[in-house]
């Protein structure tokens, strides 16, 4: 059954996008929200992440869906990360200084860069 759903999902998403972008009344209002919803549904299916994981929660502005894509990450691991101030993940990511979180399997340890 799961295989059938996955095989039919691309066609379903294509038809949903067609429905979302069909011509509208004179000014064409009302097409963007359904189109964005279709793209978000497509991402959830492709990434095998529940749609609810995309909503902001637990200190994560964009939801937990990006973390569910990483190996060895489950909802319980993400909850542990949320308790350790997830903003530190973003602060130390780009500049090479500041706090950084190191993941080793399911263990989460904080290290300070020198």
TrEMBL record:
This is Uncharacterized protein. GO terms for molecular function: protein transmembrane transporter activity; RNA binding. It comes from Stephania cephalantha. GO terms for biological process: post-translational protein targeting to endoplasmic reticulum membrane; SRP-dependent cotranslational protein targeting to membrane. Coiled coil: none annotated. One of its GO terms (cellular component) is Sec62/Sec63 complex.
